[in-house]
Amino acid sequence: VHYTITGFLEKNKDNLKDALKRLLRTSSYGLIKELLPEPVETKGGKGVKYVGAYFKQSLGELMTLINSTNPHWIRCVKPHPAKKPLMFHGPNVINQLTSAGVM
């Protein structure tokens, strides 16, 4: 597995909402006002994209890819070795998914 870290901080920076920044800047503590810059108003767009938005976009792209394929097999995972209802053995499931190359 190869990881690319280019732009990692920029992509994963979770910004404070402007309303929260304005609220915190009304604090009587000067340090808080100094740490939080005045929010910049953006014109015509939604502004900064948050981590949740990146996740939602990525998930949408994944679902588009999945829906464009034609699977021809089904992978079954056994939740536990006892074969009884309402039982789940996490390490057993992780082992199966790892062996199958899913994780």
Supply database-style keywords.
elongated; 45% helix; 103 residues
Walk me through this protein's architecture.
By secondary structure, the protein is an all-alpha fold. The chain is built from 5 helices and no strands. The longest helix has 17 residues, at 51-67. It is elongated and about 60 Å long.
Shape: elongated
| Rg, Å, rounded | 23 Å
What does the largest sheet look like?
none
Mean pLDDT: 80
Cα separation of the termini: 12 Å
- What share of residues is helical? 40-55%
Number of helices: 5
Given as residue ranges, the uncertain stretches (5+ residues, pLDDT < 50) are: none
Derived structural class: mainly alpha
Strand runs, count: 0
